[in-house]
Specification:
Mean pLDDT: 80
Radius of gyration: 24 Å
Distance between the termini: 13 Å
Oligomer: single chain
CATH class of the largest domain: Mainly Alpha
Number of strands: 0
Number of helices: 11
Helix content: over 70%
CATH topology of the largest domain: MetI-like fold
Number of domains: 2
Largest sheet: none
Strand content: under 5%
Low-confidence stretches: none
CATH superfamily of the largest domain: MetI-like
Structural class: mainly alpha
Length: 317
């Protein structure tokens, strides 16, 4: 297991550098943003460009880019959106808003999605199972931003239960802030709930028809006892790693949701950096999402071996 983890980490680092290099070269091929001559930060930005070798070959520029990050944790200065400000400080200030929305979404989605999946599996081949399965497929097929517009129209405009946009400020644990976060959380949760329901239903249906479940029933366990003690335990081998994957899926989907609900998070910052040609912010956001995605895939693979000791990752036998 240790050897397998080390190999996966090595591959993860290699993939991370390849993706970062590709994005870096493509970004540096674009025209540089025009700097305002009257701004006092312009001279500093020009000096930074010269120090980072903007006139040198791309590989030399990439080496200086990595050197600044690993030696000084310096991601550069914003050249457009927050002119002259440190990119890392801007990113850190935006991160809590994104994390709180995604955490609310995943925490609410786990029990609802798993509960619907268990209910559908126990009612297999009934109208309840067909209804949940059909609804699950429909919900998964619709992008999250469609739900965002529907929620804004129904709950924010027609019923006026919630505000259209996220409340201002950084106090994320007040009732006013929580109420304003409910619409984006709902928009992000629908697809995640459907994903958990589909996975749980498929796994539990297969486990309930296994021979060991029949043996458990013959030993005197009720259907509920056998389901809770044995069936669900085996299902979680697949469900628990899926939670990590769904979290990353929500984080990626929040790129658009944050813009719709005016959430001052990393997703909105990334989209604004793309539209505003702020390349340093875009590179930091790209590295962030790439690192999280790769780390999540590693955690998912490794978690199988810890959840079920019978699984030996990387074994040749």
């Amino acid at each position: 297991m240790v050897k397998y983890i080390l190999q996966r980490m090595l591959y993860m680092v290699m993939v991370f550098f390849i993706i970062t290099l590709m994005c870096f070269v493509l970004v540096r091929m674009l025209p540089l943003p025009v700097l305002p001559p009257e701004d006092p930060h312009t001279a500093v930005v020009l000096m930074r460009r010269e120090a980072l070798g903007y006139n040198e070959p791309y590989l030399a520029q990439f080496w200086l880019f990595l050197k600044n990050i690993f030696t000084n944790w310096d991601w550069g200065l914003s050249e457009k959106l927050y002119f002259g400000q440190n990119v890392w400080d801007i990113f850190v200030s935006k991160l809590p808003a994104s994390m709180i929305v995604n955490l609310y979404s995943i925490i609410g989605s786990i029990p609802i999605g798993i509960g619907l999946g268990v209910f559908a599996a126990l009612k297999k081949n009934t109208w309840i199972d067909y209804a949940i399965s059909t609804l699950t497929m429909v919900v998964i097929s619709v992008p999250s931003f469609v739900y965002a517009f529907l929620i804004q129209y129904i709950f924010c405009f027609k019923l006026q239960w919630f505000p259209f946009l996220m409340a201002g400020g950084t106090n994320y644990f007040t009732w006013k802030m929580f109420r304003s976060l409910i619409p984006p959380v709902m928009a992000l949760s629908f697809g995640t709930i459907a994903g958990f329901a589909r996975t749980t239903r498929a796994e539990l249906t297969e486990v309930l028809t296994s021979e060991f479940m029949l043996l458990a029933r013959t030993k005197g366990l009720t259907r509920a006892q056998a389901t809770v003690r044995h069936a669900l335990r085996n299902c979680f081998v697949v469900i628990v790693p899926a939670i990590f994957g769904e979290f990353i899926g929500i984080l990626g989907g929040s790129l658009i949701i944050e813009g719709i609900f005016a959430i001052p998070g990393v997703g909105g910052l990334t989209l604004n950096a793309i539209n505003g040609l702020d390349y340093n912010i875009f590179m930091l956001s790209t590295c962030f999402y790439t690192a999280i995605g790769l780390a999540a895939s590693l955690v998912v693979d490794v978690s199988y071996g810890f959840i079920d000791p019978r699984i030996r990752m990387g074994s040749k036998k």
